[in-house]
Amino acid sequence: MKRALLLGGTGDALIIARGMTKPHIYSIAGLARVPTDLACDVRVGGFGGVPGLIDYMSANEIALVVDATHPYAAQMSRHAREACTRADVPLWAVRRPAWQPQPGDDWREAADWNGIVERIARFHRPLFTLGREPLAHLSEIPASQRWTVRCLDPHEGNARADIVDARGPFDIAGERALFDSARIDVVVSKNSGGKATEAKLTVARERGLPVVMLARPALPPADREFDDPASARDALLAYDFNLQ
């Protein structure tokens, strides 16, 4: 039986997945929280690169792939594009619009980790909302700084870093409290887009704090692209797999 394969691990993907039933498949990486309330099949783990994804699609009669991964999961998106091209399987993608600076914002773009370090050098209390990447650099924190790192899973900090394990959505009141308690003077963020984690930008704007924004990676084109998950879900529900 022909199936759709939804590549997820994001809130957008869950909106689509909750409209899916068996035999369609929702696939997430091992770090993502595994949902238990879905009517479709759920797969956890990697594929083993492009060859593994092609083999998986062939073995499971995948007739459509929907890429709803994070905007910064560029490698997975590239693998999906190459695998679908080689297997002649249509690829759809949810391309969440990036945040745009508002009046009063002070955004400073960085291309990579070295650029981030350069841009926060004169600040003392950065808040990192990049996921796990800063955890690899805790031994490099300058004596003039104390980091607050927010990521999904608990992790041990050190004398110069506080690790906050939390999952969005985050509201403005909670972000204000975090900024106050940690005495944040600069925010480091991915330009993820969406409402779930946008409140930190509002608080930074209120307080006149700079935001160092990690540049979005370039993503490959899909055969059909959506800027919101509800539209992708509705199109998937209307898709005629018998014609594939």
Automatic annotation (TrEMBL):
GO terms for molecular function: precorrin-6A reductase activity. It comes from the Bacteria. InterPro entries: Precorrin-6x_reduct. Pathway: Cofactor biosynthesis; adenosylcobalamin biosynthesis. PROSITE patterns: COBK_CBIJ. Keywords: Cobalamin biosynthesis, Oxidoreductase. One of its GO terms (biological process) is cobalamin biosynthetic process. Pfam families: CbiJ. This is Cobalt-precorrin-6x reductase. It comes from Caballeronia concitans.
